[in-house]
C-alpha cells in the first residue's frame, strides 16, 4: 500500500496566470529524415526563434501564448539568448532534460546504473546552470518557470513501467534520484532568489501494475511517484538531499495527452483533487485530432474552450501546452496530423547547425481538422485570446530581416506604413538613436511607402536630422547586434581580424567569454579608428549595430565597448 500522507497545503498552490503554452519542436526538415541534435534553445537555432530570423517566439506571443515548452537540451551550449528573447516577448519557458543522460549516454546512461540517475542528472543540470539558466547574480533567469526532469518516464524507464511488475518502482527510483541530482546541482551553484518548479511529464497511459489508481490514465504513475518521494528508501534509493521537503514546496505534476477535454474531465480532473489536493498539474502536450469522430462531433474551438474553462475554474489545473508549433515532417505518418504551422516555400534564412546547414522556410498556417474555413493559428488565437498575426506577410520579406539598404527599403515600402515603420525603427536604432513616439514614427513611415516615390537615402537623411520623435545619444558605440546569432558575429570577427592589417585583435579575458562581448570590444575599437557612417561602417554583414547605451544592445555591451564621441554622419 502507498504510504504517502498528503499535507493540507502545499507552498506552491496555484496563484499564477493560466498557462497558455505552445510545444516547440521546429525540426527544419520538409521530409522524413534525421537531425544531429534537437536543442532549439541554442544560439545556432536563432534563425528560427530570433527577431532577425523567422521570429518564432514573437509569433507565439501574437497567437496569445504566454509560455513555450521545449524538449531537447544540450547542456554544453548556452541557452541565455533564447531565455532573453523569451523574456523580451513576455513568454515563460518550460525547459526539460533530454533523454541523453537517461537512455543514450554511453557509457553511464541511467538505465545501466539500476535507474539511479543522481550523477547523470546532477552533472547535466550543473552545466545548464552555467550556460544560461542562472543570471550573473546566481538567480534563476526570469523567463524560466518549470523544468521537466524527464518526458514520459513511464514509457522508457523502463519501457515496461506500466505493464510489468517492478517497472513502476524502477521508474519512480529514476525520477526521485534525478530530482535529488538536480537539487545537488543547485546546492553546488549556491543559487539565490526564487526557485523554479520541477516536474516529470507522464504519458496518458494506464499503469495496470501500479499499486494505486491502476485503472486511471496517468494517475497511477503520479501516485507511485508521490509515494517514492515520501519514502525513497523503500524504492531502493538513499537521497543526499531532502527530496520530500523539496517535493512539497516545488513539485508540479504534468502529463501528455491527445484525448479530448470531455475525456480528461471524467478520467482525470474529476478524480485528481481527491488524490492530490495540493499539487498543481498542467497538460504538457494537448491536442486531440479525433474530434471529428466523436458523437456528437466536437470542433477544435469547442474542445479548447472546454479545457481552458476547466483550468480557469480549478485551483490545481494550471493550463495546457498546445501540441505543436510545427508539423513534424521528419517523423511522417500520423505525427504529421499535429502542427499549427507547416513550412512554406519562401526562404527566411540558412541555419548552420551542428555541422549541417538547414534552410529555414517561412510558416504556412495549417487548416483546422474539423473546422472548415479556419486555420490552426486562428483557432488557437481565439482560444488563447491573442492579438493575432498578419498572415499575409508570413512568407514575405520581413522588416526585421531585410538589409538596411535601398533593396530592403523597397521590399518593405511595398507592404505598407505599418511594416515600413518597423524598418524605420531599425534605421533609427542603427544610427545610435531610439524612437520616443511610435505614433509619430508611423506618420513618418507613411510618407515613404512605395506610392510616395521616395527612396531609402531620403529616409536616412531625414532621420539623420534627428526629428523630435527620436532621441540620439552622444555615447553610442559600434557593438555586436544581439539580434544576430553568435555564429554570424563570430564570422564577422574572423573577417575583421583577417582583413585589417595593423589592427590588434587582442581581447582581454573579461571580454572574450563569448562572441558578443568579443565583438563589442573589437567592433567598437575598429569603428573608433576607421568608422564614419554607422550604416556602412558598423554593419559587418548584419553582425553589428551602432547602438545607443539606452538600448538592449548598448546596455549589454557597456562593459566592453568604447564609445564614439563624434557627430552623426551618414552616406547613402
Automatic annotation (TrEMBL):
Signal sequence extent: 1-16
Residue ranges of domain X8 in the record: 476-562
Domain of life (superkingdom): Eukaryota
Keyword DNA repair set for record: no
Gene3D superfamilies attached to this UniProt entry: Glycosidases
Alphabetically ordered keywords of this record: Signal
Keyword Signal attributed: yes
UniProt name for this protein: X8 domain-containing protein
Species the sequence originates in: Durusdinium trenchii
